[in-house]
Design a protein that fits this description.
177 residues; six-stranded mixed sheet; 7 helices; 34% helix; 20% strand
């Protein structure tokens, strides 16, 4: 397989992690998988707590160890691009204009999952800092979805008419109760 890979460089990444991710995506059984992620430690800065992402841990303890579109249509088990490696061929199929909006990390992984499952490497090798002003923690959010979020949801419904509509309602209610 002569595939090129890409990783968003947000922080330090050691050789072991790079080799593990490249080996995972290069494996014959991974040809249809657009990306892989590793387990993420969630560090809650405001109360100084750190633990492995519980939803990822549940996936890691399952027999499948894959993140699929239905999972991503109701929640964000990926957490951060800093935990991911991507196949360039998969990234090149995505619309760049949609990936520059708030919430685009979730949308990136959701759209990649339309091309195939995202592989979860069951080893924690990344830390994601969460603070009270962050998008996912709720501090930066308004009482309801903003125009950017509504445009993303509309885009998803245009690309995959009706398929995820009920799931996305669950997603929105989770973040805008």
């Amino acid at each position: 397989m002569n595939e090129k890979f890409m990783r968003y460089i947000e922080a330090w990444c050691d050789e072991y992690r790079i080799e593990t991710c490249l080996k995972t995506l290069s494996a014959r059984k991974s040809r249809s998988n657009p990306a892989c992620i590793n387990l993420v430690y969630l560090y809650y800065e405001d109360n100084n707590k750190c633990f492995v992402h519980p939803e990822q841990l549940a996936i890691a303890n399952s027999s499948n160890k894959r993140i699929h579109d239905r999972m991503l249509s109701t929640y964000n088990p990926v957490a951060t691009t800093g935990a991911a490696f991507y196949k360039m061929s998969a990234l090149q199929k995505l619309p760049r204009d949609r990936l520059e909006l708030p919430w685009s990390e979730w949308l990136l992984h959701f759209m990649l999952s339309w091309q195939g499952d995202i592989i979860l490497i069951p080893k924690a090798m990344t830390v994601y800092r969460i603070h009270s002003k962050g998008t996912w923690s709720g501090g930066a959010r308004k009482s309801g979805p903003d125009d950017d979020m509504l445009r993303l949801l509309q885009y998803i419904d245009e690309k995959k008419p009706g398929i995820y509509r009920d799931d996305l309602e669950v997603f929105v209610k989770r973040f805008f109760p």
